[in-house]
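Students often ask why we bother encoding 3D structure as a string. The short answer is that it lets us treat folding as translation between two languages. Here is a chain of 350 residues written in the first language.
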Amino acid sequence: MALGAVAEPPVRRRGSDYAQLSRRISQAGLLERRPGWYVTRITLTLGAFVAGWVAVFLLGDSWWQLPLAAVMAVATTQVSFLGHDAGHRQMFRRRGPSELVGLFAGNVAVGISYGWWVDKHNRHHANPNHEDEDPDVGAGALVWTREQALETRGFGRWLAKRQAYLFFPMLLLEGLNLHVSGIRAIVGREPNGGYTVPMRHRAIEAALLVAHTVGYVALLLAVMSPVKALLFAVVHQALWGLYMGCAFAPNHKGMPMPTAEDELDFLRKQVLTSRNVRGSRLVDTTLGGLNYQIEHHLFPNMPRANLRRAQPIVRAYCVEQGIPYAETGLVESYRQALGHLHEVGRPLRG
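And here it is in the second language, the structure alphabet:
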């Protein structure tokens, strides 16, 4: 789909469109920080996370640890959402406190590199769904365009043919991928000796990841047999990866993918490539506010609690400007994402 044809308003107005929307959002007070909300959210989330690990310790060498591992996958994902908010400075305007929360949530609690994730996620926000600029749609285990599919070979081609059917099973490995990618970002170097990923606190991040890994393994082996410890880790990490993938998949997959030929201003670039997911406050909590993907991409530093209030303002403004505003239910969002993956692999099945 050529995105340039979607944006109807005259080019001379485009530069002011986002500014007009931003003024409406600002006048509604939706860019103001919500310290009380975040204190409550952090307390409840970390409280549940710590309580879960205390339960692991108290339960001991029992097969009931496996259901508990599934519960801990949910708690770990909720902590990951806090790291996401910290990375966007939704909690604090200052970098220092944001990085402190991000390093704790990412490196200490979850075991992924906060610095690597911020760099990757910022590049995604700058050019969402852009094949050459967005790292989230670059060719990898999954392919997102027909061109990427046709370039696959061997096992990669076999996967690409069936990726729509294998999508959810493959997400069970996403947790491992996040851990490995963070480590590679910390130690990876270019041929000229420079690091592949810029990172402000590389040594600290490395030390925190080592501390996380040692603490995680030591706790499991201290309270259960090696076999149960291994199975706990597999269930915990696999379901955490599945949950993370399911939270992020509805946001852009199956939406238009702009190219260098598409000249889009910031407002249209963010709205046309994003999809919202309708639902109750339970959906808000389950998806960490990412169900308001359009509003989040337009105002990345907006506190999570304000996204629901911003949505009707943004949606009405898009109607005024003639900009398509994608919003669907959760199940339908997965259907659209899987449909896109299936269509991309069609040339390989011919």
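Translate back mentally: Residues 1-15 have pLDDT under 50 and may be disordered. Keep this in mind for the problem set.
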